[in-house]
Amino acid sequence: MAKHKTPLLDQLESGPWPSFVSDIKQECDSRAKNEKGIEFQIPADCPDDLLGVLELSYKDGETHWKHGGIVGVFGYGGGVIGRYCDQPEMFPGVAHFHTVRVNQPSGKFYTTEFLRQLCDLWEFRGSGLTNMHGATGDIVFIGTTTPQLEEIFFELTHNLNTDLGGSGSNLRTPATCMGMSRCEFACYDTQALCYDMTNEYQDELHRPAFPYKFKFKFDGCPNGCVASIARSDFSVIGTWRDAIRIDQKAVAGYVGGEIAPNAGAHAGRDWGKFDIQKEVIDLCPSECMSYEGGKLAINDKECVRCMHCINTMPQALRIGNDRGASIFVGAKAPILDGAQMGSLLVPFVKVDADNEYREIKDVVEGIWDLWMEEGKNRERLGETMKRMGFNKIIEAAGVPFDSRQVQEPRTNPYIFWKAEDVEGGWDRDISDYRKRHKL
Amino acid sequence: MAFISSGYNPAKPMENRITDIGPRHFTDFLPPVIKKNFGKWLYHEILEPGVLMHKAESGDEVYTVRCGGARLMTVTHIREICDVADKFADGHLRFTTRNNIEFMLESKDKALELKKYLNAQKFEGGSYKFPVGGTGAGVTNIVHTQGWVHCHTPATDASGTVKATMDVVFEEFQNMRLPAPVRISMACCLNMCGAVHCSDIAILGIHRKPPMIDNKILDNLCEVPLAVAACPTGAIRPTKIEIDGQKYNTVAVKEERCMFCGNCYTMCPAMPLADKEGDGIALMVGGKISNRITKPAFSKVVVPFIPNEPPRWPTMTAVIKKILDAYSADARKYERLGDWATRIGWERFFEKCDLEFSEHLIDDFRDPAYYTWRQTTQFKF
Ligand code: SF4
Ligand code: SF4
């Protein structure tokens, strides 16, 4: 028997898409029956109360969750988000209902053994409700009480060999695309870099010392499967500098219709016969391809590596061999000063595990030094960049100025020359001037 | 409900403490065929909606079956997913960036058998548990935030709007018949934990009423300077107020300057702004993050406000369907939604999608606004 009537939510049980309402109801049943005889450490009926409070929000058109307050585990400033219900009498099971962020493994691969361990822990000490995964990538455990936090952390670190993620004004849990594990486009090992950087910066991840949040995201190629260019203060996107590798036989296969274009991604509609001129050559943004006499040619020097031709003919075209990554900085959502896309800071960097990615970390640390010094409270790097000018960031990162860093050169000549840029500096003598120019 | 300790001793918090170990190493979790061919993949094919084949240099093939899921999931459900993985995929699986679930197998027959099996699993309420799809030129799973389920600043629900939308566009999840992939994203307030600002179609919860001020408690609940500094438009100033002969330190809000971002509420709980009539949804379109053909682009607001209509938000889903249908009918192969709109012109976009243009769609927020006004005689009647 459902604890609360949820006529509005019940309407979300119909329709084909997996219903979170049906799922929560099965959790309510499972906890009520408790076939395994678990000594639930938070109220067994908390999923019922969650449905109850959500139904109330559906009626009221307003949330019933309050502000966080400071909760967390000893020595960490991030990883736990305090959450309290503003109707604790009606819904005691969720009166205190904190979120725990668990650092997801790079690329989000799991064994069922590990997932089941997570489930057992969260059933015993939490609500049994999760997000797989949160927007930043973490495994999100939704709903537990304060006394459970240390216990959860103890079990995570001692028995599951894993750690909390980030929250608050610190480094957020770094996220990566699946990269080399199953993608032929990956220009560097995104998962290895993500893992290494996550561990290198544990202090920044768990102990807030920044003006505001800071996100690393790692994309293996310009397709951008984790959206790093839009969602991370520091985005590393794989790329290459040499020629796209061409297999002319496979090109002929596409032209002849033996191989489906775009790996079959358009199979659901009859778009007509594949037309290499129209679908590849003419769509190339740098107009650097040609197809003549049954041969595909690419003027690689002019290629901007947009991925279109490679995506369209993956059996015929492959990324080059001189691989590395580009670094973009300052992306953020609109809050507060309008949305920003990541701006290109470093056109090419080798992603070198042998020197522990020192070149990339030097850039990170240079930027952090400036931002931690100059950033205002709750100011994302993108906003600091806008306020201080990109040049300051380039200097702080210790990388060269490069025409690739701009879309076009400046349109206004209000150049902030420095004294050292000008012969004789800025120190001048007014009386000397007056000798030449009478008032 | 007796308290059971795992071993943590509050009297000696540092005893046996393990910290800063980071996540598990990803190689602990890779299926053997993935581990073996790591970094040595040749190409991939989408065999049918939801089924991928990746070919390695070694000649190995791995077949991936992808299914959608509500990202809010219970441990009971995760265990069901584990059962599937144990039965078909040697106990391995992964989640995609967009909250799909992927099972990796070594034979095509087994993959197709798994697809059939997954499509046969239903919740008691009637919906699919693991609908297979989400590949290629179609709509894949919606990334979203918490909404009324667990967040303190939302202007709408997330799981509900997403469920309602995915039900309406479900055929596009299981088909690959659109001109290009369409990425739908959902964020329940302007904070955009979900970063919907670069999606083909973005569902965004917005407020429309300035914050109320709980004068009597404000000074106890928050730091006045922080509340003042939180406002990006400078609409908040400190003030003193007298209520029943009692003096209170508080803030005042210049209401016409408020852009309803909710940032003040995040910094100061004594300034709530959520409201049944005031809150609702803005729809944005035309964003993308890939560099394919065209540059990454921001989403643009094309519908400034749709009221919250729980549980199924019918007006909102009807508009989304309308946009999707117009795009599907008119765009060229490989053309993303925003590129289509740019090509035909936004004036034509509003016409083809049968959307109304209003003053609220002209940007008036700081510098970026200027770059969105038209400075040419090249436009369409
Ligand atoms: S971003 Fe590129 S390398 Fe990474 S998974 Fe996507 S297509 Fe592959
Ligand atoms: S986008 Fe806003 S309302 Fe939504 S989860 Fe994030 S903070 Fe909460």
Number of strands of chain A: 16
Computed over alpha carbons, the radius of gyration of chain A is 27 Å
Large-scale geometry of chain B: globular
Look at the structure and give the mean pLDDT of chain A. Answer: 96
Uncertain segments of chain A are none
Specify the number of helices of chain B.
12
Structure explained in plain terms:
The complex is a heterodimer of chains A (439) and B (381). Chain A is an alpha+beta fold and 439 residues long. In chain A, 32% of the residues lie in helices and 14% in strands. In chain A, the strands form five sheets. A five-stranded mixed sheet of chain A has the order 8-9-10-15-16. A four-stranded antiparallel sheet of chain A has the order 2-4-7-6, with no helix packed on it. The radius of gyration of chain A is 27 Å and the shape is globular. The model of chain A has no long low-confidence stretch (mean pLDDT 96). In chain B, helix 4 packs across helix 9 (314-330) and helix 10 crosses helix 11 (346-352). In chain B, a hairpin with a 2-residue loop joins strand 1 (41-48) and strand 2. The longest helix of chain B is centred in the C-terminal third of the chain and has 17 residues, at 314-330. Chain B is an alpha+beta fold and 381 residues long. Chain B is globular and about 80 Å long. Chains A and B meet through helix 1, helix 2, helix 3, strand 1 and strand 5 of A and strand 1, strand 4, helix 2, strand 5 and helix 4 of B. Bound molecules: iron/sulfur cluster (2 copies). One iron/sulfur cluster (SF4) binds next to loops of chain B.
Q: How is the secondary structure organized here?
A:
The complex is a heterodimer of chains A (439) and B (381).
Chain A: H1 7-10, H2 20-33, H3 46-60, E1 65-66, E2 80-81, E3 84-85, E4 99-102, E5 109-111, H4 112-125, E6 129-132, E7 139-142, H5 146-158, E8 175-176, H6 190-200, H7 202-206, E9 216-219, H8 228-231, E10 234-240, E11 245-246, H9 248-255, H10 276-281, E12 289-292, E13 295-298, H11 308-312, E14 317-318, E15 323-329, E16 343-349, H12 358-374, H13 381-388, H14 390-397, H15 430-436
Helix pairs in contact in A: 2-3, 4-5, 12-14
Chain B: H1 32-36, E1 41-48, E2 51-56, E3 61-67, E4 72-74, H2 75-88, E5 92-95, E6 101-105, H3 108-119, H4 159-168, H5 170-174, E7 184-187, E8 201-206, H6 215-221, H7 224-230, E9 236-243, E10 246-253, H8 263-267, E11 280-285, E12 300-307, H9 314-330, H10 337-344, H11 346-352, H12 366-370
